Amino acid sequence: MIRTYEEAVTWIHERLRLGMKPGLARMEWMMEKLGHPERRVRAVHIGGTNGKGSTVAYLRSILQAAGYSVGTFTSPYVEQFNERISINGEPIRDEEIVELVQVIQPLSDELERTELGGPTEFEVITAMMLYYFGKKRIQDIVLIEVGLGGRLDSTNVIYPLVSVITNVSYDHMNILGDTLAQIAAEKAGIIKSGVPLVTAVNEPEAREVIAKTAAERKAKTYWLGVDFSVSHQQTTAEGEQFSITTPFAEYRDLRIHMPGAHQIENAATAVMAAELLRLNYSFLIEPEHIHDGLAMAAWPGRFERVSDDPLVIIDGAHNEAGIRALVDTVRTHYSDKRVHVLFAALADKPLERMIRLLDELAETITFTTFDFPRAAAADALAALSSHPKKAVTDDWTGWIREKKKQIGDDELLLVTGSLYFLSEVRKLLKTDAN
Q1: Is the pLDDT of residue 144 over 90?
Q2: Is the dihedral of CA 267, 220, 67, 41 positive or negative?
Q3: What is the pLDDT of residues 367-400, one digit of tens each?
Q4: 3-state SS, residue 74
Q5: Burial call 27-63: b when 16+ CB within 10 Å, e when fewer
Q6: CA 127, 181, 328, 228 torsion-angle sign
Q7: Neighbours of 295 (CB within 10 A)
Q8: How many helices (H) and strands (E) does the chain have?
Q9: How far apart are CA 428 and CA 211, in angstroms?
Q10: Separation between Cα atoms, residue 271 and residue 5, nearest integer Å
């Protein structure tokens, strides 16, 4: 039997050998065995290509400002595994991880002996989360981030109070499909009968699919730019300022500290979801909770300024839409800086298009790799770049430490790419700062 935290996390990660196995049959089997904890979880289900984590952060912060206890389920983690299951932003304790694995491991072993086969790593973690929030530590509300896609994602066993689809763009095309319509159909799989949907999707091809699915399931849909909108946007030294109008209220002079037009969209989506919780489910959310919650929200690894002298920013832009938003944000907030980019990514991404965008932004661009099964080789990334000042390093730790000594006041070090890579970089920078 597993007795230590290290043994528990090792066992969970060993499930990676099973890869991804889309489908809900194994989750439904485990939920049945556990007495259906998912039915006791009051949840908001948040899917989309980009912005899920930030939207969770804004909505959690609003709900906390209103005095609610909020569970979250997010991925991947940035500093420690426990972050994936958190209460009010605090990761659950090591002992709780052990207790949850002790509950789920016997079920996993039993399931492995059936025709369904053993559960994947993500299915195991999802089952742990639902058991935790459904049986052990029931919360006022739980914000559950979709892992991949939606329709066949293991989180899709829940029946939420509100569904959210942040946006739809190209990512995980080998699994979700190679057209926006196919990807949107997978994302739309989280739409439930009669459950209101909030979405910032604006691509016509994707909107059509989502609107059709929502109509079929009689899910009232609130579209950004149609049913709720943003106005009076302006960039500030601290982030962004704007106003939001919903069908039910107007919130003026809102402020967020995560910069970028895409973050305004994420914040607006979170506000609309909070409005529906207030109106449909009697959550006591006042205007000051919206203002204070947005102002306090933070999400590590998303355009995070980890050092001021020298200026170092890390951002987990891990697909084309993410890189595009990152480039726009740098140009808006740091147009006076020469940008030095360090980039590492997973091999199954649209790397050529991502690198082309970074080439246009960077003064210099350096490619590296990191210890992860699907990480792209540094040489392979560099081969896709046409930048005149491109370079390759296998020692990104030494490279960052040396670069920090070299850059001046008119320069910016931008580390971006895979969130798994950013997790390692962030640990290094925090250790060096202490």
Answers
A1: yes
A2: negative
A3: 999 998 889 999 999 999 999 999 999 999 999 9
A4: coil
A5: bebbbeebeebbeebbbbbbbbbbbbbbbbbbbbbbb
A6: negative
A7: 15
A8: 15, 17
A9: 45
A10: 37
Residue 79 is predicted with a pLDDT of: 84
Residue where a domain stops, chosen among 272, 296, 320? 296
How far is residue 285 CA from its own chain's centroid? 24
Q: Which amino acid is at 219?
A: A
Q: Which residues contact 202 (CB under 8 A, 6 or more apart)?
A: 167, 224, 225
Read off the tokens for 12: 């969970």
Omega of the bond prior to 76 within 30 degrees of 0, cis?
A: yes
pLDDT value at residue 174: 60
Q: What is the three-class DSSP state of 89?
A: coil
pLDDT score, position 433? 73
Helical segments of 86-144, H only: 94-112, 121-131
The pTM assigned to this predicted structure is 0.93
Which helix (H) or strand (E) is 244 found in, with range? strand 240-245
Cα–Cα distance for residue pair 75/325, rounded to 1 Å: 20
CATH number, domain containing residue 157: 3.40.1190.10
CATH of the domain at 428: 3.90.190.20
372: Cα separation from own chain's centroid? 19
Pairing, β 364-367 against β 338-344: parallel
Do 225 and 373 lie in one domain? The reply is: no
**Cβ 236 vs Cβ 263: under 8 Å:** no
Q: Smallest Cα–Cα separation from 124: which of 92, 140, 91, 147?
A: 147
Round to whole Å and give the CA distance between 343 and 390: 11
**Which residue is listed with tokens 């689809």?**
165
CA proximity to 45, closest of 135, 128, 159, 133? 159
Paired tokens of 111: 């399931």
340 and 290: one domain? no
Residues 6+ apart with CB under 8 A from 32: none
- Length of the chain in residues, anyone? 434
Q: Are residues 84 and 212 both part of a single domain? A: yes
- Domain with 422, as residue range(s), is 304-433
Burial status of residue 392 (CB atoms within 10 A of its CB: 0-12, 13-18, 19 or more): middle
Place of tokens 């529906």: 276
What are the two backbone dihedrals, phi and then psi, of residue 256, each rounded to the nearest 5 degrees? -130, 155
